[in-house]
Amino acid sequence: MLHYYEPEQDYGTPPVESSESVSLSIDGVTLAVPAGTSVMRAAALAGIKVPRLCATDSLEAFGSCRLCLVEIDGRKGYPASCTTPVEDGMAVRTQTPELAKLRRGVMELYISDHPLDCLTCPTNGDCELQDTAGEVGLREVRYGFDGANHLAAEKDQSNPYFTFDPAKCIVCSRCVRACEETQGTFALTIEGRGFDSRVSAGGVDFLDSECVSCGACVSACPTATLTENSIIEQGIPEHSVITTCAYCGVGCGFRAEVKGEQVVRMTPWKAGKANEGHACVKGRFAFGYATHPDRITAPMIREHIDEPWRRVSWDEAVNFAADKFRAIQAKYGRNSIGAISSSRCTNEEVYLVQKLVRAGFGNNNVDTCARVCHSPTGFGLKTTLGESAGTQAFASVEKTDVAIIMGANPTEAHPVFGSRLKQRLRQGARLIVIDPRRIELVNAPHIRADYHLPVNPGANVAVLNAMAHVILTENLHDVEFIESRCEKTPFEEWKAFIADPAQSPEALQQATGVDPVLLREAARLYATAGNGAIYYGLGVTEHSQGSTAVMGIANLAMLTGNLGREGVGVNPMRGQNNVQGSCDMGSFPHELPGYRHVSDAATRALFESAWQVELDPEPGMRIPNMFDAAVDGEFRGLYCQGEDVAQSDPNTQHIEAALGALDCLVVQDIFLNETAKFAHVFLPGASFLEKDGTFINAERRISRVRKVMTPLAGKADWEATIAFARALGCAMDYGHPAEIMDEIARLTPTFEGVSYALLDELGSIQWPCNERAPRGTPTMHVNAFVRGEGYFAVTEYVPTDERANRRFPLLLTTGRILSQYNVGAQTRRTPNSTWHEQDVLEIHHHDAQERGINDGDWVGIQSRVGTTVLRAKISDRVRPGVIYTTFHHPVSGANVVTTDSSDWATNCPEYKVTAVQATRVSEPSAWQARQQQFDQRQRQLLVEATMDA
Amino acid sequence: MTGQQIDHLVTMANQIALNFGEQRNLNEAARRTAEHLQKFWTPAMRQQLAAYAQAGGDGLSPAVSLLLEQQRSHERSIHS
Ligand code: SF4
Ligand code: SF4
Ligand code: SF4
Ligand code: FES
Question: Global pTM?
Fold first, then answer.
């Protein structure tokens, strides 16, 4: 889908949903539109463009520019078409001599205070002011530039991605409204009145303002006032390709706007159902990493990690790796090798990795990074509801009356969903936040959470149990739903467990740390406010009881009948772009694609006949099992695709020991990441701009990723895996990722109807997509649960071993911030670092004072497994006893401190709770010093890399 | 038998049993833990745990000891 560049069509005002249809005529064209539609939009739908400047279809009409005037039979004057709703039988004229004169007059005023440098203006050819001047036939400007004007106003270039040039501003306030309505940040205002009015970022420059650099104002601006720097530098694009963001699990649709093979702008795609034309700073602006000089573009090998790399051909690299892997298996057995795939890669690519392991390695030792984030979601939702996925579409939030946000921070980690949620909250939906930290939503512009339950880290299950206890014992549960939809015996067993006074908010207060009165009120609100939706994130899953908490969430939803329709549901906020997809694709060691257990003979037979091999019926190793076995010398070869385990997995020193013990580590990545520093074979990866494929976001939406530039290393990741597989003698014959998807569809019932052709037709598809749901499934479990009847699992609260004690009196919890993504390999290589140069330690002033720690001091954080040092930031977002950091920079070593404590059911690491001590220190830790040395040495070995003749 | 792995296996098995309600219903917890290990652990891990139990099983929780004992007697009955 290559399109010559032209801006997306703008209908002037947003669409209106209505079952009532209204008929009217515009310039003699008769048409019917939903009641409530504006005359301007109706005209656009009839193919008629009414000149306009202050209206755009992402924002509510404002009616300030007076350019969109029309004549309506039987009405006096010239109503503004953007603010006038259609009426039955209306006859509208958009072009008359009077209108032309009026519009020219208005336009003349605008242009008299606007520079006439169109030919050299960065948005020449892509400017609504220019277009509109043409549309209204402006030929002269009588006032001249002699009077007062703003032409000398200074530019604001503080934001690394866009420039604000007030000389060109027409004060249409589209930017201000975009920041309010679309983004919900309220960073901009119009200051002053009349001639003096101007756009202001709260009196400071953009960088120092509340602005989160989402780009909504830039997209909304009709002039060159707010323009992307890439456009200023490189000019407007010549074609565009629809693709999907490769950062977070929201999965925003984008138009990659390109010149030749150079992306000059990423514009959020209006028809993208996950984002509907909105984006965040990462997807919108932080794509420069794809062409960063650190990219490694040739395969490399070495016998030992103390040797310089040798750059070699693809053939030599994959043969070298294949020989090593075969030799390891010959000596240490079939199970001594395995692979880890990445949720950043496409479905087609992770599918191939698990196929390579099962069919080529002959074992099930494949795992994926979802192990360390959402594996408890898979376990918990499969157990209770029958499907390892969220139940809703994002748009469902528009019908939500009360939302619970638990262990998630949408405005930072899932910003575009965060904006949608804020819109709904501003309309009056109620909000309950359950989080140890006061996240932004607790108190944001025009939003205030009804309840914030500041749970002790590690006590989620206790809070969920107490809420269920209140709902059940106060008879607020949905008896009819439970009786008709849920399994009886487990419910009775659960009921006896949860009704016990031991589960009351009062009895559990010691554990939860939450005021029982507040907890009771919050539970009542969720049970009685109408449509209740629960959104949760890694603050739920990354605990020793992550799986239990997910089941507790599902229990709450079933208990209150909040499943199976719009506005409700259980919604995991996935971290990385393709976490859902990589799980769907059979990347866990115990299941084949579509979540079917390897012990299931019928499923195995299906794959065995397709792949012509015999498959192992026993589960393989999970990531932590692989590392343990590596340290013990039993696991010796690892193929690691696009995943930086050395930085992202807990207990760094243990991981480093494991990686260092491998005989052959094959890393496939776009950069020499921390893991690659332990590698023997480096296969250069491709960014999402360099390949075709699909991602699946948190709402089960399958979206296309489309190639906009040639892979820098000559192969996309799926091609690299195929080359490696062939070197191992494992046949893989695919000419295009579409063929891989066809195989997935043939072998996986929930994907049966999916094809690239259907994706092109529909834009995106929410699975299940099959005979019963040929166009996909926005809401799951509508009449029955996937498992048949819903299962109430008993969720006993078992406190974590990571408890504060005398030696380690504080609890460390970890999280993310908006501008950085995961281990930061991508975002650190973009100007996003402007906002977050280093990870800092948030500490409450009580704890700081007690330790003599001041803002900006070095603080040593010590757990039972390691020590690292970070700069302190005194903060009241955390409460006494809890400290907080992010993990976006390798040198921070947040994971040097996190332990091997993990979820009981899935081994998802307990990143969210580590018992630590914090002390003021004068220098970085010993690990950090070692890490720096090792890092320098490995960089040197890269510089010394030799080229094979 | 090696250190890293067996330490973790014991911790993990105990944790599973505890979460399956070991303190409320020992037999049921043992049954469900056995099922869980069968479903999610590699045969090698299960064997290591069994061998550890046979060699004394220091630190194994009651439900885990029980399920391993049940498995041993089941095997004995098959072989006899
Ligand atoms: S970039 Fe986004 S947050 Fe910043 S001012 Fe514009 S709309 Fe507001
Ligand atoms: S900056 Fe652009 S969008 Fe904002 S008021 Fe000026 S012209 Fe309108
Ligand atoms: S990072 Fe997430 S929210 Fe931001 S643009 Fe990408 S998919 Fe959308
Ligand atoms: S577009 Fe209608 S008043 Fe500006």
Answer: 0.92
